[in-house]
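Recall that a protein's primary structure is simply its ordered list of amino acids. Everything else, from secondary elements to tertiary packing, is in principle encoded there. The following example makes that idea concrete.
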Amino acid sequence: MTDSELLILSKAHDFHAVTVEPASIPIDPAFRTYCEENACGNYGANYSCPPDCGTPEELRRHILTQKRIIVIQTVWNLDGFDDGKAAEHARLSHNEFLIRLTDRMRAEGTKCSALGCGGCTLCRSCRRKLSTPCIFPEKRMGCMSAYCIDVSKLSEQCGLEFAWSNDRLYLFGMVLIS
């Protein structure tokens, strides 16, 4: 792990990684309605989000084609739910770690991709908003929400804590190894 990767993780209170079988990933297509409500603003505005990322069934099939999946959790201390700036920093740092990790794995010859929190964060503003092609399609990070992954069930089966807390933020991501 590089110094910059360690720096990102040092800001997190805790870090965990658990390997799981692709068939064990709990997927609930009903979760797609949360994306369609567009509370995050990425629906139709980020290539890793609906409707551009594929249907829940297509994404489920994609997960099932993987050889192995590593579930990544970072836990962040917050000053409360009102600390939106810190929560956004944690989300971006979490996703940045996933991007760096998959870049390093690819450089070492592993065919992999990542799923993170919210839409892909490789570019400052997704080119989807301009209706122009993604400039990093091979590196684009998917969104766990778009994949309809039940993070609560996933965390339980991985033995990882997941809670809605006023002072701690639990973030999840996955590395898909093909």
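The mean pLDDT is 89. Residues 84-107 form the longest helix (24 residues).
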